[in-house]
Amino acid sequence: MKIRSKFSLLGIILVILPLVTVTYFQHSSMTKFGTSTAEHTSKMLLRKERALLNKIVQDYSAILQRDKMTHERALRLQKREVERLLSSEPPESPKIHFPQSFRKGATPLPGLSLDYKHMRQMRRMDRSPIWVNYSHQVLYLPPGTEREEAARDLARLSRLSGNYRFIYRLNPEHILWQHTVLESGIQSTYPGHARFPSDYDPRNQPWYKKVKQDRSMVRVVSKEPATGAVNQVVAMPVYHPEGSFAGATAICVPYERAFRDLRFTTMWGGDVIAMLVLYQQDGVSRDRLKVLAHESPPKSAMMDKEALSKRSPLADLDLEAMPRVRQSIASGDSGVHKIRYRGKEILLAHGGHKQGEPFPLILLPYEKIVAKALTEKQTIQQETRKWVLLSGFILLGAIGLSVILALGSARSITRPVLHLANAARRLAQGDFQTKIELDSGDELQELGEIFNDIGPKLEEHKRMSQALEIARKAQYYLLPYQAPKMQDFDICGTSIYSDETGGDYYDFIEMESPEKKKLAIAVGDVSGHGLGAAFLMASARGVIRSHALQYRGNLQDLLRILNSHLVHDSRDDQFLTLFYAVLDPETHSLNWISAGHEPALCYRATTGGVEEVQSSGMPLGITNQAVHEKQRTLVMEAGDILLIGTDGIREARNNSREMFGNERLQKILTENANQTTEEICRRIVDSLRAFCGGAAQEDDITLVAIKYQPRLKEQGDRT
């Protein structure tokens, strides 16, 4: 063999060995980077899920405290009205209704109906609705009490029906029954019903005894005699004018309501058991948790519905065997614990509570959280393997090239690769600021420059992705879940953002008063779009919702207050246009006001034409000296349609920069006037997309449509 060949062979060997070594370390480094990143992500997800679960029970405990204050306010109002009636002269001809008046059968009182809110407990956990009457209370006399002896108190309490109804309508979700019991044994209950046991004496009820003993507001878990269901009773003493104890008045709170604010537990795939429990300590037997109400998915890996109907979901929880859980619950603080439950590892989360008060408890399979973390880990490892494979091909090509270039090329290739491997190792350890300095003057130097940009971009991309996702979800929950249902009106709303977040806004605010029910409708457009516009929109929404009921009759003052807030919160280049109206279904009219918003369109069914609802008001958030025009009234007739939108509709452009315009919008409204508002909105959006073609959406699009169609009234007239 010639010396040249030997030298070449030696050169090739000397080049291949370093490259193979570099390949090994590079692959090892990238694999470790993928594994360490995946493990870090898994731990981060586990911490996040535990924190989220803890926040859920803490927030729900706060909801229970809020509901508690609502119950107490309603009860104090009820106590005041009972004491006022007890101090007044009884009416000469009182209207007194006893239980027999509420039985289904001979001559029942008007308004008697089966109520699925009041369910009687049956065998095998089945429940059946009972007959109740929301128009009248029932007055009950226990055995042994003569009607003549109690005539004056019966007459006084006969006027409680209206007071009960007023308090109930203020808090319909928080009230199941309203009771007033006097020392004579008379019981007043709303709504009226006939389900009283034959030997029933209200003075033997646990809540009445405790009120009589403590002479203060009490909360008692009690079994309802009418339905057999266990609920919470909030009660207070009532007194005669001279200060003597007269009896007690109470409100019964349904525990089923507890889960209306806890629907988001299904975010873990529906395999969750949520409960409302009471911690009981008697100092003799072992501490235990009493289930007041529970909810679980139709198919649960821990316990299905049939099993729950036969067995308590806490049957296998032994607090004595879990001292840390027992101590955490006994302290009244919230907490999250990993325990064994029916052969599975689960996370048990409980809310904070005061002694004797119920609190939420959630059981979540640990495998649900681990599965999510493992999925993330596998995804990262798969991506890492792809890059390892790709880098392997690159290095194999480098080895083939080194065979051709031999010893002279080997040194210029292996050194930069080693630098890249070391930098990749540091990047794998989480150092996103890793930099590499190469001056080879070739592609490897360019690769090093690209590598230097990867770390900061990865870090920035991670932060931005998290921030945008949080903002998108937050703004999504600010928009109405669905349009309200109002008699004689068909209402629809929709909003399509041009970015992840936007500045358009619409809202429906149902307002109830003792006189009538009304609906506030708001459509707004913040200048620009993106995060800044979304934050200003959220601020405006909060101000409107907090003042809507107070200023339902004075829209000009509402705009003045909103303008003051926005001037303080917004930048100099930001402002809000707003169309705001209050719909009165009885007069089928809207009191409206506009602050520089796009003209609304009103289709008149009698003429088939479209009117523009113009406004000269000044946008909000520019200056505190802004003067807003007075509110106006728009009366709608049968078939009329009011369309409120933002400028993203009329100013939408196609690839030729032609605007969609007002005429096209009016034409769509006229041609589809006989359709539902949902269909009208859908056709407008479809027409916009067809008009714009492939052009990017430049602005947010928001639509609210209101159609007056008095179907029920028209049917009654024909009859």
Give short descriptive properties of this protein.
about 725 residues, Phosphatase 2c, domain 1, flat, 14 helices, Beta-Lactamase, 23 strands, alpha+beta
Question: What does this protein structure show overall?
Answer:
By secondary structure, the chain is of the alpha+beta class. Among the domains are: 258-369, Beta-Lactamase; 479-718, 4-Layer Sandwich (Phosphatase 2c, domain 1), CATH 3.60.40.10. The protein contains 14 helices and 23 strands. A hairpin with a 7-residue loop joins strand 9 and strand 10. Helix 1 runs antiparallel to helix 3, helix 8 runs parallel beside helix 9 (531-547) and helix 9 (531-547) packs antiparallel against helix 10. It is flat. The relative contact order is 0.08.
Fold topology:
Elements: H1 3-86, E1 112-121, E2 127-133, E3 138-140, H2 151-157, H3 160-170, E4 177-182, E5 187-190, H4 206-214, E6 218-223, E7 230-239, E8 245-253, E9 273-280, E10 288-295, H5 305-310, H6 323-331, E11 335-341, E12 344-350, E13 359-365, H7 366-428, H8 443-478, E14 489-496, E15 504-512, E16 517-526, H9 531-547, H10 555-569, E17 576-584, E18 589-595, E19 600-604, E20 609-613, E21 632-635, E22 641-645, H11 647-650, H12 661-671, H13 677-692, E23 701-708, H14 711-718
Antiparallel strand pairs: 1-2, 3-5, 4-5, 4-8, 6-7, 7-8, 9-10, 9-13, 11-12, 12-13, 14-23, 15-16, 16-17, 17-18, 18-21, 19-20, 19-22, 22-23
Helix pairs in contact: 1-3, 1-7, 7-8, 8-9, 9-10
